Amino acid sequence: MKLKYFLSFFALVALLSSCSDDDAITLLDEIQVSSSYVSIDVNGGSNTITVNAKEAWSFDEAEIPAWLTISPMNGGAGETQVTFTAPAAPDGRNTVLHISCADKSQTINVIQGLAVVHNATCAEVIEGPESKNYRVTGTVASIVNTTYGNWYLRDETGEIYIYGTLDAKGNTMNFLSLGLEVGDIVTVEGPKTVYNGTVELVDVTVVNIQKSLVKVEGYDPEDATIPVEGGNVAVNLSCKTNNGVSVEIPEEERSWLSIVSVTGGSEPVVTFRAAANNGGDRSAVVVFKTTDDKGQEYTAEATIYQKGSIVACSIAEFLEAPVGDTQYRITGVITSVANASYGNVYVRDWSGETYVYGIGAKGDFEAAGLKVGDVVTLVGKRGEYKGTAQMTGAVLEESIPVTPVTIDEFLNMEDNPNVYYMVSGTITEIANPTYGNLYLYDGDSQVYVYGTYPGWGATGDNRKNWLATAGIEVGDKLTVIGVKSTYNGTPQVANGIYFSHEKAQ
Question: For 126-139, how does the pLDDT look when each residue is reduced to its tens digit (9 = 90+)?
Fold first, then answer.
């Protein structure tokens, strides 16, 4: 009996000694848990641990899978009993959660049964349940992050995102040690999750790598970009088979991109030509294929770009445009600022409003002195986030500063068709409902607004009868943007641009 316990003691010592520093348990002063591993029966059930915190704590809700229920999700200082509940899971599953307290994070591993790995295609992973472990074989389509190993895996049924890749020893943040390249055929294993609608396999283990026998070595020009007036780009390849290389251009891109020539040998060069581009920026992903003597197919991909004209449009037209590389020019008024450091703002013209995800680099927006009410002309791409349209990569081309003033201050300004002001007041009379000629009153001062239009850029019939459409009436408080002018000795706001209004109480 003594010998048994003696051996067990040394086994424990050996186990602890084998743990790396990264695997060591961290005891936090701010928050502690009775167990960092929560086991739930494979047939379904619950398990409870004790959370002991010095301050308020909470789980990261974004990490909690649909199959797991936690109660409570947050708490205050002291001891709290937290229960984890899950329905039956014949195939087993697991997840890693974090509890935050006072800027510190405690890890909780939830394990339900022994996870079974299922061989699957990309399509089967996409349609399958979350937290299930899959083994998938496919081609490395593109690599997004070489530190954590974020990349896209594609097979003949679809494409999935790989979010995190473990190295040969099971460590994170060592992706480059694997030597993975676009075109390699890879088999990976990992659990499925869905983040913001994107199907992912998380922290996958690489089971097998089959290096591609065809590879893109470079471009001429180096950025693989053809000018707007048209021209050629050459793709330099290496091929380790004697069966040559075939080239595929997507059918939807063949109207503007064609193959000029293909040289043979072990270092083929494929030259592409693009016609003149009268639209916006465009690109095409071309595929190079070869086979070995057993008929195994290998692929490589290259993206060919062509500069395009900038498409000037209204914001409504921008919102209707497809997501892509085309550059659009919009002009409108900044209606609100979501993040001044990065220049995340909302911009509105007469036709609609869009979110702009960043103007220039960090700090550019503030350096330009931009603010709510200013008129900006931006060039950027049509992007989208969670189904909502936005402008991405926006570049500021031009801006018009707008100065907020009282009506009394406005009346004392000099006439200038190039200086814009923002004025607010209560509508006392609508002189012309068709064009929105009206009087604004504030305090003891009144000003005539010669035209009230739905927003920046409105022309023609778009300027007419807008007050009635917007339900703006006498007694409402109206804010407009315009320049100071004088007609027959009477000061006025010329061509007032609608900014906001408040209904009369």
Answer: 999 887 899 999 99
